[in-house]
Amino acid sequence: MSTEKISVKLKDLSTTLKGEDLTEVIIDTNLHLPNMFSILLTDEPDSITKKLTYTDALKLGSEISIEIETQLPGDPMPVKATLIVGEITALEPAFTNQGVELLQIRGYDRSHRLNRGQKTRTFGGITPITLLQIINTIVQETEGIANAMVDPELGAEMYPYVLQLNQTDLEFLWSRAELVGGQVYVVDKTLYFQKADAHRGLNPLAPTPLETPAPLNWPGNLISFYPRLTVAKQVEQAEVISWDPKTKKQVKGTASSDSSKTTLDIGRSLTGQKQTGSQVARAALASPTSMVKASDTVVTQPGLTIGQANAIAKARFAAAESEFIQADGVVTDGDPRLIAGRVVTIAGVGDRFSGDYYVTEARHTYVRGLYHVSFSVTGRSPYTAHHLLSSRKGSSGSAGQIQGVVTAKVVSLDDPERLGRVQVMFPWLPQYKHADLASNWARLASPAAGKGQGFFCLPEVDDEVLVAFEHGDPNYPYIVGRLWNQWDKPPTGVDPTGADIVNKDRKRVNQRIFSSRGGHKIILDDNDGQEQIIIQSGGKKGNSKIILDQQGITIDGGSQNLTIQSQGMTTIESTGDLTFKSKKSISLECNQLNVKATGPGKVEGSKLEISGTSMVEVKNGAGAKIALSGPTVNLN
Predict the structure, then answer these.
(1) Residues 525-538: what's their mean pLDDT?
(2) End-to-end distance of the chain based on CA atoms, in angstroms?
């Protein structure tokens, strides 16, 4: 039987509670949630002031640390470890009918500060940003957390733009961690962003003996142990398929092996197993000649690089493998080093189930001198109610996603890559640091878009647009339409009031209109018996138009000049009459003039003058006559 000493340090009161003062102490450590504590003690009033010693003195938010020292059987030296450094978040006194005042003190480690309210903000945008920079920004803005220890490989991951959408900082950090195979936790005032199999301690890469749990034996210090080996949901590979619009190619990442403590050490390190979950599942469920591989395929992650796709595939495969072996156990001789995020060796449970296990939950319970630890091994899946509810497919806003379409306002057209993209702001989102948040550059869904072709019509700044998101990811917006409103009303057609756009019974559309900001219009008019196409110029003096109707084609220059110009040959041809009319003069000017009529010709005017600066020659065919007539004919 072990001997224990427990101390609870109350920084606010500069007081340390000893075991005899405590009725019950519970510390929950969890791989996926903030670590928490609960302390139950008897509170006595001061004999003079009548104030309660703790109930009237403790402050919410004050620091508390819980340390346990234990002498394990067979160990020459006692083991001492601080289980949690946290903050008081709740005080619950109970005044009983026996005349006893009890005080329940509850609290969490400082990671609970990352859960205080949702935030909406952007990272990157102008220049790419690393995951390390994102984490440091969050730490700098979180009171109570002083610094961060980030795995170098994970921290180097680069992103052009990241939107934190109505998420707590802890939700947001976990969403990034799950993409790259990481985990997030806080020890005292340091935030750790480490690989999912990392040892939880002062140095995740080098666990010390003072942080390594003692081996557990059954029967012995391990009084109960319930392992579960399952091939359900085990896969032989994970693949992530995405699309890269820059290269117009599919991006595919795959993973079929992993070497983390949460996977292979749970399988191969078991003395009688020596196989991973995927290998056992294939042997149990597939024929030896089968070429088909069970695959966990992800197709809902947009805009990935090959490196990012491989990282997600590796994380997905490891998450599936981590559920191959699960277990629950209880230790009588409590060990304060046995916490979530550490590997414990278990022996005496047969060859198949003896080996190393990565602990995901551990509850330390101290009740009136008795100390025991219950622990669980569940793999990388949180299995918390919050996670299960927030990860339901189709749930609006889950995991920082936006389902369906939303309205937005255009704020910039200055696309650095000149790809016809725009930036928008979402007026229904809160501001960040008193400023509106701009989206990532949004691609425009346009009719007939292709290489050097398509209908190219950008929305303008302040236009209201309709936005959709690739697989619900707000980092990848698309403009799918533009909207009218009470301020920006639709254009009018032939009738400036717009009354003729639909017919009188209001059941059919008469006019389809395309109009620019300057008033240039193309009108497709389907009025019965008056069908026409009108192309009309805008601007302050814009009244020029081309009308194509059942009578023909009319080109109307309005009050402006009409010019037909060509560097090649210009031909005006008609099978009927061709008439030139002007209320003023008609001038023909050219280097050489030829006028020819295949039939009779006639030039008529109240006064005609033919002159040449060098010579005028009048000719007729041989044998024909030239007739000049008039009251007076002068030949000079």
Answers:
(1) 86
(2) 147
